[in-house]
Structures are given as C-alpha cells and as structure tokens.
Predict the structure.
Amino acid sequence: MYMRYVSAQRAFLPGSTGNRTVGVVIMMEKIIYNGHTYSRNSEAKDLSHRKYYRRSWNKRPKNGEKLLHRQIWFDNFGPIPFMCVIHHIDGNPDNNDIENLCCVSERDHSMRRVPSKARGC
C-alpha cells in the first residue's frame, strides 16, 4: 500500500552572527503513497509535524487533503464530513491502515480520554 524510507536533507538556518547561515542535517521520514511523497520531521517543534505525515509542501492536493491518514480515508470513503476528523483507533499515528482509522466529530475527538478500543470507534 505504501513504502516508508528515511532521508537526510540539508536545511539552512540563520546563524547566530549576522546574515551567516548554518547548514543543518534534518532526518526526514518519508512515505510514498499513490505516487505522492508524504514526510514528517521527528525533530520539528510543532507536535503535528512530528506525528503526522504531510504531503510535499509545494504540491498541495486539489481536494485539500494533505495529511496521509486523511488522504487514505478520502481514497477509501470519499470526502471527510464537515467538523469531523480522522482518528487513529490504536493511538499510533504510524499505523495508517484503513482498519485503524475512523471518522469522528471534532467534539467527540476532543473529549476522548478512554482508549479507543474500549469505546469502539
């Protein structure tokens, strides 16, 4: 269904002295799904960028889906209803198998405290 690999990319960040730039190697985890590359940076400051695979930044899909688990849901069931999110049943964002994904309202998702399997998604 999809292929996973890790690559190193060189990013240039502002240096501590003036306009000098410093080269930093960033390890990017990548997955190829349906011919598109989805990446995540496990060292990113933003939690969402560390947890979820996103479609290549410069190629945003026409249907607005840019997170891998949302795209997998879309490909299997069609558009995600308004005010709904795709939830990983086992809580593991690495497990993007369709059997591990369910569509829930944003409200229900934010109120979840009990493990998903106990609730039955």
